[in-house]
Write a structure and sequence with these properties.
This protein is an alpha/beta fold and 325 residues long. It has a single domain, classed as P-loop containing nucleotide triphosphate hydrolases (Rossmann fold), CATH 3.40.50.300. 34% of the residues lie in helices and 24% in strands. The chain is built from twelve helices and 13 strands. It has a nine-stranded mixed beta sheet, sandwiched between helices. α4 crosses α5. The structure holds iron/sulfur cluster. The site of iron/sulfur cluster (SF4) has 13 residues, from loops.
Length: 325
């Protein structure tokens, strides 16, 4: 089966500090994965692990330093205007930021119809908008003439997803889509992603710090730490039987979403994060209970352990992964 979206050695380097004393932070370090139609692929990890920077590069908000993003087997050489808006759509963390409080919500939907020339008449536009709203459990009648403040966070997130669906994307990138939605409504949004995956055969790239929803969605998961994929494989297998010491730790201690996450350009990282990003060898060596001398000097390879890709010297007797699957 052809992947619908693939990254090959995707890398993003930021520089921090003054011209004379600059630190080179590799925020995303040779990240390679493939995702397929009808699949949920999760990028998970703590704040500052590189998962959102990876998403930003796929969406064209950030230019990769090196590496490739391949959509439907075509290497578009990071030309987001060509394929991002047409084939890949995104849903973000805060639905209240997506909509101007002074503008009726339907305006966003009809604007997308107009921009992409998706309908020939007002009646066709309304039919299309209603169809997509029904796909997310709403209808045009429920939305018409209303402002963002008249909806719950969960409803606004649904409307945001409906807007994404207007262009019939084949990939939906969902970046922490439920972290600001009331706990009682979270599962309904997560179930909606399951439905979109199954009914529309979409590929869903789910970005989260929340391992519980990742587990519930199923599919495959890549656990990221300081720009690196530490462990990757079927989500149930990875989370129930973690091989990598970091996955063990993450499972025991699920961190909160970072409310200060920056979407534009600069990155802001705490001291310990910076130390970890600059660390030679394995980035997790400073916290790992199994650390060995080699971990402090040599970056581990990706090893294949019972069908799971693991970046850790503990598995150096296993086969090195030549190409991600
Ligand atoms: Fe721990 Fe070493 Fe494995 Fe890194 S490579 S996770 S430090 S054992």
């Amino acid at each position: 089966m052809q992947p619908i979206l693939e990254t090959k050695n995707l890398t993003k380097v930021f520089f921090r500090g003054s011209l004379l004393a600059r630190d080179r932070i590799v925020a995303v370090d040779n990240v390679s994965f493939k995702m397929y139609r009808g699949e949920v692929f999760t990028l998970a990890g703590e704040s500052g692990c590189g998962k959102s920077t990876t998403a930003r590069m796929i969406l064209g908000f950030e230019q990769p330093t090196s590496g490739e993003i391949i959509y439907e087997n075509r290497d578009e050489k990071w030309n987001p205007r060509v394929w991002y808006t047409q084939r890949i759509q995104a849903v973000f963390q805060n639905p209240f930021e997506t909509f101007n409080p002074l503008r009726q919500v339907e305006g966003y939907l009809f604007e997308t119809v107009r921009n992409y020339k998706l309908a020939a008449s007002r009646a066709d536009s309304e039919r299309l908008v209603d169809e997509k709203l029904r796909a997310v459990g709403l209808s045009y009648a429920e939305v018409a003439g209303r402002y963002p403040s008249e909806f719950s966070g969960g409803q606004l997130q649904r409307i945001s997803i409906a807007r994404s669906l207007l262009v019939d994307p084949s990939v939906l990138i969902a970046d922490e889509p439920v972290s600001m939605v009331d706990a009682s409504l979270r599962m309904s949004i997560v179930n909606l992603f399951k439905r979109l995956r199954d009914d529309l055969n979409m590929g869903i790239l789910y970005i989260t710090h929340d391992l519980a929803t990742a587990y519930y969605l199923g599919g495959r998961i890549a656990i990221m730490f300081r720009g690196n994929i530490m462990e990757m494989g079927p989500v149930h297998e990875v989370l129930m039987t973690p091989r990598h010491p970091y996955t063990h730790l993450l499972r025991e201690c699920i961190p909160e979403a970072d409310p200060d996450r920056k979407w534009q350009g600069r990155i802001s990282i705490a001291e310990t994060e910076q130390e970890e990003y600059l660390r030679q060898g394995c980035k997790f060596a400073g916290r790992c209970p199994h650390v060995m001398d080699i971990c402090k000097i040599k970056v581990p390879e990706n090893y294949m352990v019972d069908g799971i890709q693991v970046k850790c010297h503990l598995y150096s007797d296993q086969k090195i992964v030549e190409e991600v699957s």
